[in-house]
Write a structure and sequence with these properties.
The protein has one domain: Nuclear Transport Factor 2, Chain: A (Roll). A 4-stranded antiparallel β-sheet has the order 1-2-3-4, with helices on one face. The protein is elongated. Helices cover 29% and strands 39% of the residues. The protein has 102 residues and is α+β, with helices and mostly antiparallel strands.
């Protein structure tokens, strides 16, 4: 019985995606779902649900560009990279700096 459980864990581990693959998948899905331009990935975290990836996206281009409006979106993907959910977490102007607190 123990060998079967070890084999199942090994198979799941093989199917799990790398952090780079998870980030690319989240960015691609968020871009497709929102229709917004990607700016940067600001956070990636693995937890009990899977992966949480936070991405800043350009909601509105403004002149000068440091006044662009950026929104942070968080995507949750399972360990195999299946997109589970996303939400808009905040908005800022590109020129504004912000320190995120846990």
């Amino acid at each position: 019985m123990k060998n079967v459980e070890q084999l199942e864990k090994t198979e799941v581990a093989k199917m799990a995606m790398s952090i780079g693959d998870i980030i690319r998948k989240a960015r691609s899905e968020l871009g497709d779902l929102t229709g917004l331009e990607l700016s940067s990935t600001v956070r990636t975290l693995k937890d009990d649900k899977g992966w949480r990836v936070s991405v800043e996206m350009v909601e509105q281009h403004v002149v000068p560009s440091n006044m662009d409006i950026l929104a942070t979106y968080e995507a949750i993907l399972d360990y195999n990279g299946n997109f589970l959910e996303f939400s808009r977490r905040g908005v800022r102007r590109r020129a504004e700096t912000r320190v995120e607190e846990e």
